[in-house]
Amino acid sequence: MPMVRERSGVDKIAPYQAAKSLESIKREYGLSQVIKLAGNENRMGCSARVGEVLNQLNSQFAFYPDPNCTILRERLSTLHHVSSENLIFGNGSFELISLAAHAFLGEGEESVIPDPSFGWYRNVTLQMNGTPVMVPLKDFTIDTGRILEIISERTKIIWICNPNNPTGTILAEDQLNDFINRVPKHVLIVLDEAYIDFTEEPYFNTIDLIKEHKNIILLRTFSKLYGLASFRIGYGIGDKELIERINRVRSPINVNFSAQKAAEVSLDDEAFKNSVLDNNRKGLNLYYTELEKLGFPYIRSNGNFLLIQTGKEPVDNTFLQNGIIVRNAGEFGLDGWIRVSVGTYEENEKVIEVLKTIAERQTGRRKNDYETGI
Ligand SMILES: Cc1ncc(COP(=O)(O)O)c(C=O)c1O
């Protein structure tokens, strides 16, 4: 039977490989217990207030939610000192990334994407029949100099993931400011700040950038620090005309009621946020200390994840046998590396135990190779 004729360009889009859900991993590998450290989720869960509040609100579940996220909008506009018109909400920042491309990228126009970085930028570019222009990282960091060199008349969007997923590197304040000042004003800069709360050193207030530059949108998410990944809610901050343009391609009721309420109560729970940040810093420090001892190279991270070079031999199965799922960074073009989300302290210790067995195996092999003269 002949296939329905698809829109041109759809054939070029490879299905996006999102991190698998916990349940599907358990089924696939026949495991009853899994420590999932492959999706940069929050292993501390979310604020206990979320469940309490949603339980009291079930009389609302049959109604459509507020299409404007009014209460959350007011809360965030106060928190960030921006007008409510500077904000747009999405079904996770995944959706906001799509909306930015839908609003601004036309057929044959270029979108500049550091590589490796978050994979969805390339996917949405292809959805619009745009041309992805990949710019390799330099020393695991976004190469702003190279990006400036390749901007052309056809460039419409530049995607800057800061801190960058999967490397965890961040641009210095001066470097970011200098870069933004040199990008032509007709080019949209999407500053994806999914991990901005986890920076090693306090970062400058990037929200001020939108007051000076009309061509920037910042993307933030409730999935990471707040642990609300299952609810699907993120937001963008930008000049009001930019936001108004993106709103034109947004589906009218894109953020569900529970997500809005969960986000509202999460903003108030300072103790939970502090515990997440504290756990993240302690977890990363534990990794740094142990990785130094084991001799595995790693990249210091500004996110809730860490890139570790374990070598050519695949290690996914060794982790799986221990009930742990990590991300093989070969998927991002970093062969021989894994990306591990920071877990609870005990989970991090378990990962380190597995790394120890891998290190021992590798040392044994190197020793054997030497002894047998290979
Ligand atoms: C850099 C980056 N941007 C956006 C997202 C999507 O986040 P959300 O859950 O808000 O859709 C992720 C998810 O991991 C991410 O790593």
Automatic annotation (TrEMBL):
Could you name the domain of life of the organism this protein comes from? Bacteria
> Where are the membrane-spanning stretches?
none
| GO terms for biological process, alphabetical | L-histidine biosynthetic process
Ordered alphabetically, the record's keywords are: Amino-acid biosynthesis, Aminotransferase, Histidine biosynthesis, Pyridoxal phosphate, Transferase
Entry-linked InterPro entries: Aminotransferase_I/II_large (IPR004839), HisP_aminotrans (IPR005861), HistidinolP_aminotransfase (IPR050106), PyrdxlP-dep_Trfase (IPR015424), PyrdxlP-dep_Trfase_major (IPR015421), PyrdxlP-dep_Trfase_small (IPR015422)
Q: Name one GO molecular function term.
A: pyridoxal phosphate binding
N6-(pyridoxal phosphate)lysine PTM positions read K224
Cofactor entry: pyridoxal 5'-phosphate
Q: What pathway does the annotation place this protein in?
A: Amino-acid biosynthesis; L-histidine biosynthesis; L-histidine from 5-phospho-alpha-D-ribose 1-diphosphate: step 7/9
Q: What is its EC number?
A: 2.6.1.9
Instruction: Please give the Pfam families that the UniProt record associates with this protein.
Output: Aminotran_1_2
Q: What is the reaction catalyzed?
A: L-histidinol phosphate + 2-oxoglutarate = 3-(imidazol-4-yl)-2-oxopropyl phosphate + L-glutamate
Aminotransferase class I/classII large domain ranges (all copies): 33-355
What family is this protein classified in? Belongs to the class-II pyridoxal-phosphate-dependent aminotransferase family. Histidinol-phosphate aminotransferase subfamily.
How it assembles, according to the record, is: Homodimer.
Name the UniProt record assigns to this protein:
Histidinol-phosphate aminotransferase
Organism of this sequence: Lacrimispora xylanisolvens
